[in-house]
Automatic annotation (TrEMBL):
Keywords: Oxidoreductase. This is Short-subunit dehydrogenase. Belongs to the short-chain dehydrogenases/reductases (SDR) family. Pfam families: adh_short. It comes from the Bacteria.
Length: 277
């Protein structure tokens, strides 16, 4: 099985949601790691050009594409351009995502439910499906990072739609990992990333549960980068995510609700959520 990647020299990396936040940080890491081509996808044209301008002239070829990943047609069109103009990515970081923090019955069906599922779940599948056959055929050491969430492991009030989108990502992403191994395509490794709250503005107003403070994005992206290069199957951050998942698996529902709600404060973590303005 293909081992750890020492350097991205000569590699092509595609990052979604690359105009700001952690997506932009991944792009900076790619340039610092001497990637030959860094492909940036984002729906925000102005922010995307700003991010691309910052990276140009540092050694990597920067390719910026305005893409609305909530639309399959837009993904297909952008993927075709990337294949024609840059080539098949060696590394794909499915980072783009949105969050809607409200009770389920308060969600608008289009702008909340459909948008969340399209961007957080279906986009990852569609984008990966666009490039995966050529990644398989190419035989080059490759990586796919799918950004899920601790919310995909544990239910939480005011996160029903977001949680469902991330539960789906975890199931699909780890199944994909197993399928690639079973089919003998071991030059491609899949990492499923399951973080708790990160200080990016996306979860503005959310409060970290007991022993789980909001994480600094720079430290998180560096840890994900290392996991990607090592081909780590699943990365949970911080350590309390693993603890909570284990407790949820062994405790009766009523007991877990007490622990999560009253002891750790998980069920109250979204009470003051405002999100990115």
């Amino acid at each position: 099985m293909t081992g750890t990647i020492d350097s991205l020299s000569g590699a092509t990396i595609l990052i979604t949601g690359a105009a700001m936040g952690m997506g932009a940080m991944y792009a900076r890491l790619a340039v610092a790691d001497h990637a030959a081509h860094v492909v940036l996808w984002d729906v925000n044209a102005a922010a995307l050009e700003e991010a691309a301008a910052e990276l140009r002239g540092r050694g990597s070829d920067i390719h910026a594409y305005v893409v609305d990943v909530s639309r399959l047609e837009a993904i297909e069109e952008a993927a075709a351009k990337v294949r024609a103009e840059v080539g098949t990515p060696d590394i794909l970081i499915n980072n783009a995502g949105i969050v809607r923090g409200k009770y389920f019955w308060e969600h608008d069906q289009r702008s909340d439910i459909a948008a969340t599922m399209n961007i957080n779940t279906l986009a990852l599948m569609h984008i990966t499906r666009e490039f995966l056959p050529e990644m398989i055929a190419g035989g080059r050491t490759s990586r796919i990072v799918n950004v899920a969430s601790a919310a995909g492991l544990l239910a939480n009030p005011r996160m029903s739609v977001y949680s469902s989108s991330k539960w789906a990502v975890i199931g699909w992403s780890d199944s994909l990992r197993l399928e690639l191994v079973q089919a003998g395509h071991t030059h491609i490794r899949v990492t499923t990333f399951c973080p708790s709250y990160i200080k990016t503005g996306m979860f503005e107003g959310a409060r970290g549960p007991l022993l789980t403070p909001l994480m600094e994005p720079e430290a998180v992206t560096q840890r994900v980068w290392r996991a990607m290069k090592e081909g780590t199957p699943v990365l949970m951050m911080p350590w309390t995510v693993k603890l909570s998942t284990a407790l949820r698996g062994v405790l009766p529902i009523k007991a877990w609700d007490v622990v999560a709600g009253r002891v750790f404060g998980v069920y109250k973590s979204m009470e003051h959520f405002t999100g990115r303005k």
